[in-house]
Amino acid sequence: MSKINCVLDACSIINLISIDEDDFLIKKLFKCLKLSICEKVLKEVKCNIFKKENLQTKKKEVDTLLGQLYHYVVSDSTLEKDCGKDFFERIHKIANYKKENGEFYSSALALYLSQYEEIKLFFHTDDSPAKNEFQDFFITHQIGGIEDTADLILLIYRLDDKFLNKELIKFLDSLFAEYAREVAACLKELREISSFVNSNAKFRKKGNLKNLIHKLIIKLESHDFSHIHELKRDLLEVNDPILKGFVQKYEAVFMLDPSSQSKNNFLNKIRTLQKKAKKENIYKII
Amino acid sequence: MSFNDAFNLKTNPFRITPAISSDEIIWAGFSILKEKLERRIKRSIKISNSSLILNWGEYGSGKTHSARYFNKANTLQKLAESVECKPPYSLVFTLPKGKEPVYDIFTSVIDKLDIANIRDRFSDVSFNLEADVITKLTDNLLIQSVLKAIVDPNIDKSLLKKYLYGSATKTEISSINKSAHTDILRSLNKDNDYILLLSGLFTCLTYKKEVFSTIIIWIDEFEDIAILSSSNIDKTNNFLREILDNTPNNLLIFVNLTQSALLGVSDLGDYIYDSVRSRIKERINFELPSKDELKIYLKDILKEYHITANDENNYFPFTEHLIDEIINDLGNVSLRSFNEALSLLLELADMDNKQAPIAIEYYHEVKPEIIGWKNE
Question: Under an 8 A CB cutoff, do A191 and B59 touch?
Fold first, then answer.
């Protein structure tokens, strides 16, 4: 096992399991990295993993995998015992982050591990907005880096000498398809909503809403995910149950909004990495 | 006054597109496009050669509606009667986006396969299906056995479908073999099995054009091939190539593809390989409609929905002058956008209790709600 420590978010775990074949990636993940997962992330994984259609027929295998993940869980009570009962409250204040989600608890866990074990580590998540929110926190506390699932796959590839280039290309491809499929489904449903809103008198005074949906469609059609997080917020402000349900259903798509530092969205990044891998520009010394 | 009385319409004809219920699927306007599609279908009904046709156009240009219209039993019956042939066997499905696209296509076909109806149709053909067709179309004994079982009236239909879906037990497979005197020794589980069985089935159904004249498959939303993994892009292309090669007669495949920012003409080669592109016989473009085309379309559709005929004003509850203005204001838009605008105008007029024909002044009042938001 390498000495590289990783904290994993729910989306990264779910995506890895979803694109995996015969537990190839998961076995290498367990073998190559020192993993840590917070309780909240495991709960989120259990809650959401079977929303992936391809995993619905593999319930038994997936449940076995989830059972193995318990081994890597660091409980909240451990952190509170070592750092005080107000530990999470303090992180909320310092990070200026109110939500109680997997990203928050993972960042708290990352801080704890980095200081208690005197290491730098990586937190893997595909939630770009959350990445933006915690970037500063990670830098200030010198915790390490926030990376995504594509980076995690590259890391496993680098660490495992039996992980071949063609397998890397295949898994990056599957990861791309995983998100692109979600975007296509989101776009299809959004067009149906648009048709309904544009032809229904109930929405007559909602010019702003129509404009918002129209803008989002144009962005999704061209895989331009910049600022879609803001469009999501605006959609939620309309306070319509159909729109709320739509946003919740396609949360993963809204997470593709790239960080303010990067103009490159996640899908483009995967495509770029695939090209590099195909040209054999990813050098493994060992 | 009710909507029907005020506007002399059975319902709002523009409300939901494309239509889903069979009764609502009508063809209005666009006679050139209709003729192209009819000509292609009639050719396949009459002549044996298999064909692959690419239907290409922007979102909202009518590709899905065409698939649904030409999948209707009475549409196909009329086309077949016009060339004095049996009707086609037609299927519409969307491009599968799961991990096993060939299996998903196979399942779509089996879902719609009415085994009882098929067996009934084969009961009075002039040929011996087993001797003249099944044993000659493939040397694959498994496929031969499965095809025999499909047409054998002694085999329980539900049991057979279980086998085709891959969920039959060994005991159930043995029971099929016992009843049909076949040698089915394993389940179907590879892409090649599914393709061979489908092509065998299609060949049987269209042999001598006595049961069906041709098989028509519409694959909708084909542009989603751009989001598949490389492996599934390969499988999809492989499926198209193999099914056409193994069914050289009486198979017509329409592929509906929406051009978009992600998938333009220059990108096609990345997703549709040479081996498939070379098999495309024709590309039918679904263009953005002209002003005249929109007006003819509108007259046709209103005629269908008028409760009582209105010979004085074909555009009732609109006027021609109003329609001209709407079309000018909308600019170069898809048919879908045109439908949405008219649907909203009708609904607003109904809500505001306006008399028909709808006055142009009223349209000016509500224009910001119909079109104006696009300029914000």
Answer: yes
